[in-house]
From TrEMBL, chain A:
UniProt-recorded name of the protein: Trm112 family protein
Residues passing through the membrane, by range: none
InterPro entries for this protein: Trm112-like
NCBIfam families xref list: Trm112_arch
Lineage, top ranks: Archaea, Methanobacteriati, Methanobacteriota, Stenosarchaea group, Halobacteria
Automatic annotation (TrEMBL), chain B:
Protein name, UniProt field: Demethylmenaquinone methyltransferase
Example of a GO biological process term: methylation
A Pfam family this chain is assigned to: Methyltransf_11
Entries under SUPFAM superfamilies matching the protein: S-adenosyl-L-methionine-dependent methyltransferases
InterPro entries associated with the record: Methyltransf_11, MPBQ/MSBQ_MT, SAM-dependent_MTases_sf, SAM_MPBQ_MSBQ_MT
UniProt keywords, alphabetically: Methyltransferase, Transferase
Domain MPBQ/MBSQ family SAM-binding methyltransferase profile: 2-200
Transmembrane segments: none
Gene3D superfamilies xref list: Vaccinia Virus protein VP39
Signal sequence extent: none
Annotated EC: 2.1.1.163
Keyword Transferase: yes
């Protein structure tokens, strides 16, 4: 995912802001990392560039 | 309560459906119908468009002809893998895994929202439509394609057991409940006798 998407992304649970933690990037593309709910503390993984913003009760 | 109105079961169903989806789906929803629906929206180059339940990317492909800024969300990774084969994972389209009823986007983020072949699997369609209204900009349009109510005895019972079907009256009720205005419907059909698709276009009210 592109870092600029932080402008439109939010925590699906309460729509509060997310914090980005990057493990691996390629230019402005975040390949591995996580988005963390600043209020809920929920962790949403970014895997191979795709953010998984499924609420925890819907994950595999 | 249809058998797919349970998200775990829907995911399992899609895992298998995705293998044949692009071959089966054209009987209900083909390129001509999709293109006709796209024409009903006034998408400008540069508009930021969200495709909810993008699945294998059939609608996404049409949206890309209008604007470069297309975002696809789906709960099923198996469906989206087909879309990634077409568009790349991080190239032409921004992809997200997510839930239509709990969208991970800030208010007023999109110029247009498109959703085809997804509403019939949402456990609470009005909740998802409320999310659409929240994330689309005030005064902007959403377009939702679903299966039209077959209204015939045996098929009706079968239909209701599998997924949600609805008619224009029910669509009006759902979109009004979600706070939309200027709600209009178009019934599209590949040919007489084939299943009908119901296309609903509605506008989020100005502030």
């Amino acid at each position: 995912m592109k870092e600029s998407l932080m402008d439109i992304l939010c925590d699906p649970l309460d729509k509060s802001e997310l914090e980005l933690e990057v493990d691996e990037r390629d230019g402005d593309e975040i390949l591995e990392g996580r988005l963390i709910g600043t209020v809920t503390g929920e962790v949403y993984p970014i895997e191979d560039g795709i953010p998984n913003l499924l609420p925890p009760d819907m994950r595999d | 309560m249809g058998v797919l109105e349970n998200k775990a079961r829907a995911r399992l169903f899609y895992k298998y459906l995705s293998k044949v989806y692009d071959r089966v789906n054209p009987f209900i929803w083909n390129e001509e119908m999709r293109d006709e629906a796209l024409e009903m929206l006034d998408i400008q180059q540069g508009d930021r468009v969200l495709d909810v339940g993008c699945g294998t990317g059939f609608g996404t492909e049409g949206l890309l002809r209008y604007t470069d800024d297309v975002h696809g969300l789906d709960q099923s990774i198996h469906q989206m893998q087909k879309a990634w084969e077409k568009f790349g994972k991080n190239d032409e389209v921004r992809f997200y895994r997510g839930d239509a009823e709990r969208l991970p986007f800030a208010d007023d983020s999109f110029d247009v929202i498109w959703s085809s072949g997804s509403i019939e699997y949402w456990p609470n369609p009005v909740t998802a439509l409320e999310e659409f209204r929240r994330v689309v900009k005030p005064g902007s349009k959403v377009l939702v394609v679903g299966p039209d109510d077959p209204k015939s005895g045996v098929f009706q019972k079968l239909a209701d057991a599998i997924m949600l079907f609805y008619d224009e009256e029910e669509a009006d009720r759902m979109f009004e409940a979600a706070g939309f205005v200027d709600i209009e419907h178009h019934i599209l059909q590949r040919q007489p006798g084939s299943p009908r698709a119901i296309v609903t276009i509605a506008r989020a009210p100005e502030e």
